[in-house]
């Protein structure tokens, strides 16, 4: 199967990092097709940037959805996930959804650990969008600057491990979700320091999308994720306009 690994921000270094993790966890025969947003910001940290990232994600999906079997929206917070599921017939999973739902299979309460306080409000809304407020016992965030988004997992490795330990000891977390595409690959390096399961969201997403593709489920013909009716468009890319206008 072919899986589109869609990074909705503009950081190629994060796309490379995500691709390395996805390839490591992918089953034999799964091909990872990486893609990076053509416009936007290097990493998404708030609501406004998430809307921009969602637009970039829809553009990429419009161009490539008919060439792959499934897609991963590779940004924690899952910008545009609901819209993508409305417009496209392939299975699509997000990093946040995959990480949190995997955590729910492993414990009653999970904690989110991430690298910046700027992410807190958006991540809290992501928890609420997934209706997991009763399962998320904490969002733990580092409150200090970092030098490079591509190296934050290396630069802050020890501090992130300490945050995870604090979430277990002080918040009662049964599972830790390492949140944010820049932290992909970190769980394998620090899981021995934390006494509960630790989720790498990219790894969880690749296994979940493989399962959904293998199930060979039909696209919805009714319900909230049924494809919307055709509508005229103005100013959109040719591929996205064709999808919305039902010409593709």
From TrEMBL:
Per the UniProt record, one Pfam family is Asp_Glu_race
Write out the GO MF terms: amino-acid racemase activity
Q: Which Gene3D superfamilies match?
A: 3.40.50.12500
Recorded hits in InterPro entries, A to Z, give: Asp/Glu/hydantoin_racemase, Hydantoin_racemase-like, Iso_Racemase_Enz_sf
UniProt family annotation: Belongs to the HyuE racemase family.
Question: Which PANTHER family does the protein's record reference?
Answer: PROTEIN DCG1
Q: What protein does this entry describe?
A: Asp/Glu/hydantoin racemase
- Please tell me the species this chain comes from: Marinobacterium aestuarii
